[in-house]
Amino acid sequence: MTGLQAAWSRWAVCYVDADPPLGGLPDDRAAACEALQDHRYDNTLPTDPWAPIADAAQREGVSYLALGLAVVLVAVTVRDRRLVRAVGAAVGVMWLALAVPTLRSGLAGEPVGSDLPAGVAPLAFVMPFITLTLAAFAAARGTRDGRLEGLFWVTMTAAQPLPEFFVTQMLWSSYDSSPLAGFVRCVAVVGAGLAVAATLLPASRRPALVRRRAHG
Predict the structure, then answer these.
(1) High-pLDDT (> 90) share of the chain, %
(2) What pTM, to 2 d.p., does this model score?
(3) CA 75, CA 213: separation in Å to the nearest integer?
(4) Which residues 6+ apart lie within 8 Å of 133 measured at CB?
(5) Which domain holds residue 106?
(6) Nearest-5° angle of CA 30, CA 42, CA 9?
(7) Residue 50: pLDDT band by 50, 70, 90 thresholds?
(8) Where are the transmembrane segments (predicted)?
(9) Residue 39 placed within a domain
(10) Can you say how many angstroms the Cα of residue 169 is from the centroid of all Cα atoms in its chain?
(11) What pLDDT, in 10s, does the model give residues 125-139?
(12) What's the DSSP call for residue 169?
């Protein structure tokens, strides 16, 4: 929810008849929407020059923090090999690595610690392949929850910054940040939450796709 609020704070003018979120932006909605696509208005890992939009960066940081903790919790509670659980938990830690500097910057009103550690930045590029591999391993287990766990990791792939960037650019191209930035991640997170919630249902009420695999 906080991630959705952060995205709406920045992009509302692109969708509805709303006032620009900051002074100095064009009064025309289309022009203001285009101006807001500049990286200086980014909520995640802001860098100089940065123009913070209300408490959007704080909300974004909180959303990353909650997401990271949730991913770690899911990863360590699945019935799988220890290595698989550790890799899944590392995905959650990646979200936490984004959360801390984003939240600190939002609280300070200026970029704080936005440079990721040297070993973390390259992981952002390989993490989508890691989560897709986790999805394949989960589905291959052949258990009732395997496909749902696989769906969880697929949605976590779509939620990551790099895949989200390409998806949003394909749906709404931009010279920098697409007005869909943030919304795609929120949709993916909702899908992940539904997948986890479905594992808590009795077997008789599981999705037909999962039941068929379980009895196959």
Answers:
(1) 62
(2) 0.87
(3) 22
(4) none
(5) 2-29+53-215
(6) 60
(7) very high
(8) 61-78, 83-100, 120-139, 151-172, 178-203
(9) no
(10) 16
(11) 889 999 999 999 888
(12) H
